[in-house]
Design goal:
alpha/beta, disordered C terminus, 9 helices, Rossmann fold, 6-stranded parallel beta sheet
Length: 229
């Protein structure tokens, strides 16, 4: 049986199928500001993410698709106001079932995301109640906190140990955050863009998460440590 007692999730690209909607708001703001940019398609954007370009939080996302810094900042401010209202997002198929199965096996659930709380709360709907309140950290809760520090904050508040904890993400920055915080990592390769390199376990869809957390030995071994800048 796995020694995992707490699973922390990144949200966009892991629980929420939201990449197309994020690119749509980029296209709309590009047109509104008259920037004349060519916004990448979903496959094109995933290639950008796979190259390790910083795409999170949202201001970095706007920069990654070509917005000049001042317009990226402006777009980010508007994103916080209108995204939840104008760009509806759904959970990936099987999310509710996967979360409830993990809970049924006595595993606590949490969230560490660079998105704002209102966005994820609306999109997750009733699923939001499956997460422990002391294990949820969003950009709204900790504006200038890194994901690594947010993971450490969850551990300090919840009293779980790092070696009992797994973080599931879909970006290279998520991998680095997990390693910096000393927790195990599982890469969601179906998400926004993380390139498997053999140093961490992966899942290809939501339904694989349950088996990896509960039974896959790769998820219970120590992860390699890397020097971070």
């Amino acid at each position: 049986m796995t020694d995992i007692r707490l699973v922390l999730f990144d949200v966009d690209g892991v629980l929420l199928d939201s990449l197309a909607q994020h690119l749509k708001i980029c296209e709309d703001k590009n047109r509104e500001y008259g920037l004349g940019l060519r916004i990448p398609s979903v496959p094109e954007f995933r290639k950008i993410a796979l190259d390790g370009i910083k795409i999170s939080p949202m201001e970095d996302f706007f920069r990654a698709v070509g917005f000049p810094p001042e317009f990226a900042q402006k777009a980010d401010a508007q994103y916080r106001e209108v995204f939840v209202r104008d760009y509806p997002v759904n959970v990936f198929p099987g999310v509710s079932e996967m979360l409830r199965e993990l809970l049924a096996h006595g595993i606590a659930l949490g969230i560490v995301t660079s998105n704002v709380r209102e966005n994820i709360k609306r999109a997750l709907g009733p699923n939001m109640f499956l997460f422990r309140t002391d294990c949820v950290v969003t950009k709204s809760d900790a504006e200038h906190t890194s994901k690594a520090d947010a993971i450490k904050l969850v551990l300090s508040r919840s009293m779980f140990q790092a070696d009992q904890t797994m973080y599931i993400g879909d970006q290279l920055s998520d991998l680095h955050a997990a390693r910096s915080a000393g927790v195990k990592f599982l890469g969601a390769v179906y998400g926004w863009g993380i390139k498997p390199d053999g140093s961490f376990p992966i899942v290809h869809n939501v339904t694989e998460i349950r088996n990896h957390v509960l039974t896959d030995s790769n998820c219970t071994g120590d992860i390699p440590r890397v020097a971070l800048g």
